[in-house]
Amino acid sequence: xxxxxxxxxxxxxxxxxxCACARPVPEGFRGMIxxxxxxxxxxxVYDSTDPNHGGIKLYGKKDENLHIGNxxxxxxxxxxxxxxxxxxxxxxxxxxxWEGLKLAAFEKFGSQSESHLDSFFWTTxxxxxxxxxxxxxxxxxxxxxxxxxxxxxxxxxxxxxxxx
Length: 164
Description:
single chain; 164 residues; alpha+beta; Protein Transport Mog1p, Chain A; 36% strand
């Protein structure tokens, strides 16, 4: 019996340590939860519609606080598919803001030692996260609802079958 206690106690300590160090899992952005209706946010300002998946309406926010951590976003775009929050895009310009965005993403989602140039990818139970540096000194952090992404894929498959 004593032999098993020697194994169980370290395992329990490791489990507690893992739980204490686990990062919070994003289920949206700044209190906006994936799947929330766009009518729930009166400060949204319509920008355009992305034609993907039958149309994703893109919005900004009136008087949006663009300061996040130690960087300033150029803009933040909220995507709604079938009037439900499905994505958030944080766009930065300039090297200082890119480095700040990357540092904030690594702090929130975990650092990555290997990447494909300046492109990073994380997934959680609720969110698909992509961070990439684009041309012309721009950077983008894209957060997408995993559940709504599955629904969008199913929508696309259904539409493809209809087209045959």
